[in-house]
Amino acid sequence: MQDFVEIGENLVFLAMTIASVIALGVFLERILYYRKSMGKLNDQFLTEVRHALHEKPEVTWEAPLTHTSSYWRFVHFALRQIGMNRKGLDESLEGQIISEKIEFEKRLPILNTLGNNAPFIGLLGTVLGVIKAFYGLGTLGASGADVVMRSISTALLATAAGLGVAIPVVMANNYFSRKSKVILQNLEILKKEFIAFQMNKNKV
């Protein structure tokens, strides 16, 4: 049994290492993606679009530096729909928002899963370590106190590793979820203003 417990402990620490690498990879990929739709240039572009919708009878823009941002894609999609004078602008823009939402939430379930389960994996390592410690205590008796204490120390380290993975992962997931919510709310505002713009244009 002792051999199986030791194998289990090693697998737990291996799982923690793999989870850390995966979480770091997802975080870097997502931060690069989100940066395309965040920052001063994107906020400035959003302000210019809203101002033009309020003040100008016709709206066209050159592609700004942030041409890969969700705001740019949404604005140019809306302009194409209005330019073709298609019906159902509301539904078309809502579909575009959903498309952007899917992209923003891509891979976030990985962070959510790791954040929720890493502490339990660490706890499993702790349980295995405690089993190993009690087994050693029963086998070696009082003379094996050093071995028992080392086993308990390793067991607690597994819990610490689980929390060490889970805490930053949960923070990153919350950060991306908040940024996604803000960007999608701005797209909802743009949708309403484009619909109002089209209605006013049709009245003229």
TrEMBL record:
<keyword id="KW-0813">Transport</keyword>
<feature type="transmembrane region" description="Helical">
    <location>
        <begin position="155"/>
        <end position="176"/>
    </location>
</feature>
<dbReference type="GO" id="GO:0005886">
    <property type="term" value="C:plasma membrane"/>
</dbReference>
<protein>
    <submittedName>
        <fullName>TolQ-like transport protein</fullName>
    </submittedName>
</protein>
<dbReference type="InterPro" id="IPR050790">
    <property type="entry name" value="ExbB/TolQ_transport"/>
</dbReference>
<dbReference type="InterPro" id="IPR002898">
    <property type="entry name" value="MotA_ExbB_proton_chnl"/>
</dbReference>
<keyword id="KW-1133">Transmembrane helix</keyword>
<feature type="transmembrane region" description="Helical">
    <location>
        <begin position="12"/>
        <end position="33"/>
    </location>
</feature>
<keyword id="KW-0812">Transmembrane</keyword>
<dbReference type="Pfam" id="PF01618">
    <property type="entry name" value="MotA_ExbB"/>
</dbReference>
<keyword id="KW-0472">Membrane</keyword>
<keyword id="KW-0653">Protein transport</keyword>
<dbReference type="GO" id="GO:0017038">
    <property type="term" value="P:protein import"/>
</dbReference>
<keyword id="KW-1003">Cell membrane</keyword>
<comment type="similarity">
    <text>Belongs to the exbB/tolQ family.</text>
</comment>
<feature type="transmembrane region" description="Helical">
    <location>
        <begin position="114"/>
        <end position="135"/>
    </location>
</feature>
<feature type="domain" description="MotA/TolQ/ExbB proton channel">
    <location>
        <begin position="82"/>
        <end position="188"/>
    </location>
</feature>
